[in-house]
Design goal:
single chain; 156 residues; mainly alpha; 4 helices; elongated
């Protein structure tokens, strides 16, 4: 007996390289969703602290970054990297250690923009803040995917 013909478009099985690229694209998209919400928290808290509560610029940027760090951990752990192996105590320690480095990078970059480049107006301070977040986020993406939220050892 012969097999009946299949009606409709045929899809060839995806090559391993295609699957790897697809997973990376999905990972970047999820990282961006969590990161985007973290940026919103960071910017909102920063503006409330600096312009609303009249905190010192560096205190406002560091506090805003720390608040966003806490909300980002939950987003990364339970959304962006939920399929990764869970080593909770180690994972939390690595996340906050690398995030602390990210806050330091972000704060230094903000300082350079705000004080060094004179971006101290309300608009300028927000531009300096956004640029510092964007630049520090590249570092965060690499370390989170490489060391914090690793794939399980079973080859995934």
């Amino acid at each position: 007996m012969s097999t009946p013909p299949v009606i409709g478009p045929q899809r060839a099985p995806k090559a391993p390289k295609d699957r790897k690229v697809g997973r990376l694209v999905l990972e970047v998209a999820r990282f961006s969703v969590v990161g985007g919400s973290g940026v919103a928290v960071n910017i909102l808290f920063f503006n409330l602290a600096l312009h609303g509560l009249k905190w010192a610029p560096m205190a406002a940027t560091v506090a805003a970054s720390c608040v966003a760090m806490g909300t980002n951990y939950l987003g990364f752990r339970y959304f962006a990297y939920r399929d990764r192996a869970s080593r909770t105590p180690r994972q939390i320690a690595l996340f906050f250690a690398f995030s602390g480095l990210g806050v330091a990078m972000e704060s230094l970059l903000f300082y350079i923009g705000y004080h060094g480049l004179g971006m101290d107006s309300p608009l300028g301070s927000n531009i300096a803040k956004v640029l510092s977040i964007v630049l520090a986020s590249a570092f965060r993406f690499v370390v989170y995917r490489t060391w914090v939220f690793q794939h399980a050892k079973n080859g995934r």
